[in-house]
Design goal:
Number of domains of chain B: 1
Number of domains of chain A: 1
Shape of chain A: flat
Structural class of chain B: mainly alpha
Number of strands of chain A: 0
Helix content of chain A: over 70%
Largest sheet of chain B: none
Order of helices and strands of chain B: HHH
Oligomer: heterodimer
Structural class of chain A: mainly alpha
Distance between the termini of chain A: 43 Å
Order of helices and strands of chain A: HHH
Shape of chain B: elongated
Strand content of chain B: under 5%
Strand content of chain A: under 5%
Helix content of chain B: over 70%
Chain lengths: ~90, ~100
């Protein structure tokens, strides 16, 4: 039971709580905000797994994941702007 | 000594992440929610990354962690800004009362 492992377990719990907001969210922007938070938590989880196992190639995956999360959030925000019914 | 500094930084990061989760469910409007959650999320991320750097020491590993930290420091506010701008352009109504 090292420190990153405990932090990892708490983060999985936090991501599950944030997923409730995706189900509940009244507008589509609330769902996108919760998705953004979950993607940041997954990013922290990848870095913690890399620190636990000592494999530094996982950090390259984390870098690509950060870029993809940013691009997908901006793209969804631009697509959703033109929708008719936003629920 | 290094263990306790890292444990303190992990505790700060997890506290801020829990504060962000509380804000995600406490506020009842989108514009209030995005303010608290985005700022708090960035602070929690920085604290946990600093804890990883302190734990690992100065090496090639921690240099990559610093790169990820810099990338998120630039992109996370931009993503939040894009979300709010999309909501404003699509005319999501602003809340009526100020204490919501």
């Amino acid at each position: 039971m090292s420190l990153p492992f405990i932090c990892l377990c708490v983060l999985v719990f936090c991501a599950l709580i944030a997923a409730v907001r995706i189900i509940l969210g009244p507008t589509v922007w609330d769902r996108l905000l919760a998705l953004n938070m979950i993607s940041a938590k997954i990013l922290i989880a990848i870095v913690l797994i890399a620190a636990l196992t000592g494999r530094s190639f996982l950090l390259d995956i984390a870098l690509v994941y950060a870029l993809l999360g940013y691009i997908s959030t901006v793209l969804f925000a631009r697509i959703v702007r033109d929708w008719r019914d936003r629920t | 000594m290094i263990f306790w500094i890292a444990a303190f930084l992990y505790a700060i990061g997890l506290f801020f992440i829990f504060a962000g989760l509380y804000g995600l469910f406490h506020f009842n409007h989108f514009y209030s929610r995005i303010l608290i959650s985005s700022k708090v999320e960035t602070v929690g991320f920085m604290a946990i990354m600093t804890a990883v750097i302190v734990e690992q020491g100065l090496s090639f590993f921690s240099l990559k962690v610093v790169l990820i930290c810099l990338l998120v420091m630039v992109t996370n506010p931009l993503a939040t800004h894009a979300l709010v701008r999309s909501a404003l352009k699509a005319e999501l109504p602003l809340p009526e009362d100020r204490d919501g």
